[in-house]
Amino acid sequence: MSELSRARDAALDRYEQLLLLKEDLERECFRLEQEHTREFGKEVLEIFRLEIECARKVKAIECCRMYLDRGLEPDGEALQQHVQRETQELIGHLHAMQRTWRNVMDAAEAGGEGLEAVKPLHPGIRKRTHPDIPDVEEKIRELEWEIREIRSKDPYQYKNLFSRPELVGEKHLDLQRQAEEYRQYSAQLEEKLGSILPEGTLLIWSHEW
Fold it and tell me: Cα dihedral angle (64, 75, 46, 192), rounded to 10 degrees?
């Protein structure tokens, strides 16, 4: 075997190893993401719901002030429609998050994580192609960078969280604190809005959430 062939085979070996490693990391990330959703998903959803509730009240206050600045009385129905339009995208995102959470919890109750078997993405590299060494080396560099990126970010970094039960408990407390802060802020906005809305005007903040 020529020196060139040995170098090419060594590069292909390294390339295939990195491909398999990346696939393993992606499977691990999927598992960790599912675990994170099961553990914290309900609290994360509640925080996001409260964020939207506050955003809708802020939008309503801004709209009321526009009416008042023009010497007009705020119109409750127009306010409601304006707020719904302005936060429609956020509510759509919340609904998508809720569906994801339900799917994960249903899969957990069924005894699985919802992860289908993943076949190797790049089988038989040697049989399908005879790339030049520079091409393989460039792909190796790209894969090494992708692997570093995966390992440096969530959900892979959730491994550190789930390896220490005290950190899991601390995160639950932090999420509960955030939710309470949003509830207090929402109450403050409600009070401010009540002071400028016409008496008897009712706005719905959590319609079919």
Answer: 40
